[in-house]
Design a protein that fits this description.
Elements (H helix, E strand, L loop, with lengths): L9 H11 L6 H9 L9 H15 L6 H5 L5 E5 L2 E5 L5 E3 L7 H14 L10 E5 L5 E5 L9 E5 L8 H6 L5 H12 L4 E5 L5 H9 L8 E5 L11 E5 L13 H8 L6 E4 L6 H9 L7 E5 L6 H11 L4 H11 L2 E7 L5 E11 L5 E9 L3 E2 L3 H10 L13 E2 L3 E2 L1
Parallel strand pairs: 7-11, 7-12, 8-9, 8-10, 10-11
Antiparallel strand pairs: 1-2, 1-6, 2-3, 4-5, 5-6, 12-13, 13-14, 14-15, 16-17
Helix pairs in contact: 1-3, 2-3, 9-10, 10-12, 11-12
């Protein structure tokens, strides 16, 4: 049986009435509001169900995108106008059959999602970057800035961190490299997790933080709270953007300073992307061992240049910054996303120093598929200085005192 024609403006009238009367948008309330409309009794059950579903999708959660965001295999949901693409890791982006709706529907959905995070999205402010109440990160751009839009980019939120064993099982971390990572955490060596966008930096960092002894206190500073390590003592601080009047901003740099007053055993910055790197390096130079951060970099060799750029944003001269890096950071864990969509830890590197104890470059200690690199002996020495026996990955290579891995 075909549904009866939908009365013009029915969805808009119900939405407006619920808003004006302050009715909480629950599925039951939406259904009751639709049936309370004049002439609703003349509509068929199919039409009433369609109208109710449309309104529920527009007023509650992420609407039609909710099943995709709830799918544990989905990492990203991208909306181009009315077309939806999803990323499930292996295989890369895939187009979802059908359309989300017309541009007007997508615009309203984006605006409602932005409003749940207290942000404005309209012609005067045509783009927004927010964290939704469920932890999902959303970036949205409206036309005419976004030609052919609206465009939505949603990064899903995993509530439970992967264990290191799970990362090994799915191929992200090589079994031999996993032994190195455990040793890095145990030795309290400060480290950076680097890679491009979507390579799994936050995932790997959360897994490593989950291996920190339960007697230690983790203070985590982030732009958007994504790190959820399985650890009993985690203090999370989240930056805050300015409100519509331009006031109330709390930057990562502010939070790193506050974190130092909170007795951290390990200070973690979710992603260094600005002048906060100066406070981070300063903290690691003042007895806060075992700190960690993520950093965007195309390769380990690019890390010093990226740190220079961020340091200059904080007003620190190049020479002084390299001295800070030499004293604060020693290990780089680099991730790469392959063309088939798989994310892999490809290199474990050491930041080497020159005779004046300034940064001389980044040297590979381990590379996937090749085993130990030229920096292996230096990494072994760092472990031994911290009283940690260098790892001996079974079946791969053996450690010989004074000679490194072989």
């Amino acid at each position: 049986m075909r549904a009866a024609p939908r009365p013009a403006g029915l969805v808009e009238r119900v939405r407006t009435r619920m808003t004006l009367e302050g009715i909480e948008a629950t599925p039951g309330a939406v259904a009751a509001a639709v049936r309370a409309e004049p002439g609703a009794a003349l509509l068929g059950e199919n039409t009433l169900r369609e109208v109710t579903d449309d309104l529920t999708g527009q007023m509650i959660g992420a609407g039609p995108l909710t099943p995709l965001l709830a799918d544990p295999s989905v990492t990203d949901v991208l909306v181009n106008g009315g077309h939806v693409w999803v990323d499930r890791g292996a295989g890369g982006l895939r187009l979802v059959p059908g359309t989300l709706g017309d541009p007007a529907f997508v615009r309203k959905l984006a605006q409602r999602l932005a409003s749940t995070a207290g942000r404005r999205l309209d012609d005067a402010s045509p783009f927004v970057d927010v964290r939704l109440p469920d932890g999902t990160r959303m970036h949205a751009v409206l036309p005419p800035v976004g030609l052919g839009g609206p465009y939505l980019s949603l990064r899903t939120f995993r509530r439970t961190a992967f264990t290191l064993d799970e990362l090994v099982a799915c191929g992200t971390v090589d079994p031999g490299a996993a032994q190195l990572l455990k040793a890095v955490v145990k030795a309290r060596l400060p480290y950076l997790v680097t890679g491009g966008t979507g390579t799994g930096k936050t995932t790997v960092l959360a897994s490593l933080l989950s291996t920190v002894p339960v007697t230690e206190r983790l203070v985590v500073v982030e732009d958007a709270a994504e790190l959820r390590p399985v650890h009993p003592h985690v203090v999370s601080l989240q930056a805050r953007l300015a409100n519509v009047e331009g006031a109330g901003i709390v930057s990562l740099r502010d939070l790193v300073r506050q974190a130092l007053r909170m007795r951290p055993d390990r200070l973690v910055v979710g992603e260094c992307r600005g002048a906060e790197i100066v406070e981070m390096l300063g903290a690691l130079n003042t007895g806060h061992e075992g700190g960690a951060a993520t950093l965007h970099a195309n390769s380990p060799a690019d890390v010093p240049a990226r740190l220079e750029t961020l340091g200059l944003m904080g007003g620190v001269p190049r020479a002084a910054l390299h001295s800070m890096i030499a004293s604060a950071l020693r290990v780089v864990l680099h991730l790469h996303r392959e063309r088939d969509g798989h994310r892999r830890l490809t290199e474990v590197c050491v930041i080497s120093l020159d005779p004046q104890r300034r940064t001389a470059g980044v040297v590979t200690a381990w590379r996937g598929g090749e085993g130990p690199g030229p920096g292996a002996a230096e990494l072994d020495e760092l472990f031994e200085r911290r009283g940690v026996e260098p790892p001996r990955p079974d079946g791969r290579w053996r450690y010989t005192a004074g000679k490194g891995w072989s």
